[in-house]
Design goal:
Blueprint: H1 3-13, H2 17-20, E1 31-37, H3 40-56, H4 60-75, E2 79-84, E3 98-103, E4 106-112
Antiparallel strand pairs: 1-3, 2-4, 3-4
Helix pairs in contact: 3-4
C-alpha cells in the first residue's frame, strides 16, 4: 500500500466533523402564558414540570398524566391536566390554582378542582 492510499484510508475512517461535536442542549421552548389565576412562582413550576414531561414522553396523555401527578404530589390533590394542540375547555377551578399556557405548539391546561 502506498503512502497516498494510507492517507485516504485514514481520512475515510475518521467520523465526519459533525459527529465529533459535543451535543448541545435542545433549544429552549417558547412559553406563552395565555391565562392564569396562579402565583408566578407556581406558574414557573408548572412550566418547568411540563418541559420535563415533554422531554420524557411523546404521547400527550402521558405528558398530562406526568404533570397532574407531580402537582398532586407537590401541592395536594386534586389537579387536572389537559395537553394538546387543539381543544376547547370550560372549567371551574379553585382560586389561585389555574394556568393555561403554550410550550411551542402544545397547549397545557392545569387546574385544581375538587
Amino acid at each position: 500500500m502506498s503512502n497516498e492510499d494510507s492517507k485516504k484510508n485514514i481520512v475515510m475512517l475518521r467520523p465526519p466533523s459533525e459527529d465529533r461535536k459535543p451535543t448541545s442542549p435542545p433549544p429552549p421552548k417558547k412559553v406563552i402564558i395565555k391565562s392564569a389565576d396562579m402565583l408566578p412562582d407556581m406558574q414557573k413550576e408548572a412550566v418547568d414540570i411540563a418541559v420535563t414531561a415533554f422531554e420524557k414522553h411523546n404521547v400527550e396523555k402521558d405528558v398530562a398524566e406526568n404533570i397532574k401527578k407531580e402537582f398532586d404530589k407537590r401541592h395536594g390533590p386534586t389537579w387536572h391536566c389537559i395537553v394538546g394542540r387543539n381543544f376547547g375547555s370550560y372549567v371551574t377551578h379553585e382560586t389561585n390554582h389555574f394556568v393555561y399556557f403554550y410550550l411551542d405548539q402544545k397547549a397545557v391546561l392545569l387546574f385544581k378542582s375538587g
